Amino acid sequence: MNDDVRNIVLGVIAAGLSASLGWFVRTYLWRRKLRRKQAFFGLPDNSESLLVVSRDPSSANLAVHRFDVFALLELSALIKDCGAHAQIITQDAAQQGFGERTEFCVGGPGSNRRMAAHITAMLPGIHFNLDPEPGPDRAALHIGSERYRLDPGVTEHVILARLTTGQPDQARPVFLFCGQRAITNQAATRYLARNHERLHRKYGTGSFVLLLKVVNSQAYGPDVVELVSDVTRAAQTPAPTAPAQISHRAS
Predict the structure, then answer these.
(1) Which residues contact 208 (CB under 8 A, 6 or more apart)?
(2) pLDDT above 50 for 249
(3) pLDDT tens, 118-143?
(4) From residue 192, how far is each of 38, 143, 144, 145 by CA, in Å?
(5) pLDDT in tens, 166-218
(6) Are 110 and 128 in contact (CB under 8 A)?
(7) How would DSSP label each residue in the chain?
(8) First-to-last CA distance in the chain?
(9) Is Transmembrane tagged as a keyword (predicted)?
């Protein structure tokens, strides 16, 4: 074997080793990213999850609001990426306990009694004004001593929460997407899909409750979402009995 042939063989071997090393590193990083995503959502390979959705209160039929359907599509993509499976049920058919399967609950407490049960049990500092009478406080969201009014199509708010019991044998979380209007539920699912890595870095696999503001949905749909604040402590603390004060952040 002369020098030219030897150099060619060595070059092919080096290229092969570099390609193999690159493939190994990319695969390792991809698997590590996937494991982190699975841990955050509580969705190991081939696990089961539950999508609980409201029925559209404006429809006499057993219908789901179109924005809630869009929210379910966003969540289904996340679940599929984790290699898990999803079962979709309406709020009146959900009768399992908390922590048995990862749960994604979509809809406000007025149309989703499963959501209402979660808020009552785990987030006593949150209250939605469900009074059907028209007025400035209709559909207002109260968190602790703060009040966030609804300005349809202009300024709307939604709760995005990840909750766990903290029990080692009940490690599966429940995610809540609870907004003042259906479009805000979709906005919250989209926010989670875009920011789950950052949320995982900040909160790990613990509980959090975030208040999001959907800006000008009549023009931008569910795309323009701002984080108002982390309201975990206020949401988990029973609300004061004194009347809520209007938050300057709601304007």
Answers:
(1) 161, 162, 199, 202, 230, 232
(2) no
(3) 999 999 999 999 887 787 888 899 99
(4) 14, 21, 24, 26
(5) 664 557 899 999 999 999 999 999 999 999 999 999 999 999 999 999 999 99
(6) yes
(7) --HHHHHHHHHHHHHHHHHHHHHHHHHHHHHHHHHHHHHHHT--TT-EEEEEE---TT-SSS---HHHHHHHHHHHHHHHHTT-EEEEEEGGG----SSSSEEEEES-TTT-HHHHHHHHHH-TTEEE----S-STTTT-EEETTEEE--BTTTEEEEEEEEE----TT----EEEEEESSHHHHHHHHHHHHHHHHHHHHHHTTS-EEEEEEEE-HHHHTT--EEEEEE-HHHHHSPPPSSPPEEPGGG-
(8) 81
(9) yes
- 52/88 Cα distance (integer angstroms): 6
Residue with tokens 């309406």: 90
Instruction: Over range 74-102, report the average pLDDT.
Output: 85
| Side-by-side strand order, sheet with 146-148 | 126-128, 141-143, 146-148, 245-246
Average pLDDT, the chain: 84
CA angle 161, 120, 61 (to 5 degrees): 85
